[in-house]
């Protein structure tokens, strides 16, 4: 049934007036005012904060930055560990040289502990720090082998990564002081020399 114009309002407003009188939840003057030309309508409160879309954009940007930064961070950590391993091998070479000079009857030692605090030759210890003497430092394991002769005139020291995340290259040094490296297996004197 069509609604007739009432009080000069269009029929649609009369229907609205009827609907609102039944529900009684909304102020009638605000709704009718919203339907008049040039009216501002129902005033809504401004919500403070971020919308879901804005938050999703920020999360997306953070994920993109992380995807770029994390692999570079891992590469930098591996490079730092490898640099530390090379420096530690040079420290072992210096320690072995000092030990054999302080203990000429023994020569080079087959134990990292002898270069630190061991009593094998008291005048030859304190050449390396206790962490390196433990055989593990900065993601690498260290071992001395190849000590031959009495007094020992040769030695070999190897540095191998504890995992693929701590280093990629294996290193080798002997009494000559040349450091060699290998990408896939423990290095030997026949591998490429570090430049």
What descriptors fit this protein?
single chain; alpha+beta; six-stranded antiparallel beta sheet; 15% strand
Distance between the termini: 96 Å
Task: State the low-pLDDT regions, or none.
Answer: none
**Category by helix and strand content:** alpha+beta
Radius of gyration: 40 Å
Strands ordered across the widest β-sheet = 1-2-3-4-5-6
Provide an overview of this structure.
The radius of gyration is 40 Å and the shape is elongated. With 195 residues, it is α+β, with helices and mostly antiparallel strands. The chain has a domain of 115 residues. Helix 1 runs antiparallel to helix 2. It has a six-stranded antiparallel β-sheet with strand order 1-2-3-4-5-6. The protein is built from four helices and six strands. The model has no long low-confidence stretch (mean pLDDT 84).
């Amino acid at each position: 049934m069509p609604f007739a114009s009432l009080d000069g309002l269009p029929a649609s407003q009369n229907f609205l007036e009827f609907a609102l009188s039944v529900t009684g939840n909304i102020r009638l003057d605000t709704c009718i005012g919203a339907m008049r030309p040039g009216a501002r309508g129902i005033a809504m409160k401004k919500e403070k904060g971020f919308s879901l879309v804005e938050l999703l954009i920020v999360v997306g940007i953070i994920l993109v930055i992380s995807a770029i930064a994390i692999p570079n961070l891992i590469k930098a950590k591996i490079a730092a560990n490898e640099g530390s391993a090379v420096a530690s091998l040079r420290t072992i070479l210096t320690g072995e040289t000092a030990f054999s000079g302080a203990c000429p009857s023994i020569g080079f030692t087959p134990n990292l502990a002898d270069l630190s605090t061991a009593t094998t030759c008291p005048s030859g210890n304190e050449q390396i720090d206790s962490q390196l003497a433990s055989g593990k430092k900065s993601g690498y394991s260290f071992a001395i082998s190849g000590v031959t002769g009495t007094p020992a005139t040769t030695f070999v020291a190897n540095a191998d990564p504890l995992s693929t995340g701590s280093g990629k290259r294996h290193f080798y040094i002997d009494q000559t002081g040349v450091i060699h490296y290998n990408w896939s297996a423990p290095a030997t004197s026949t591998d490429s020399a570090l430049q």
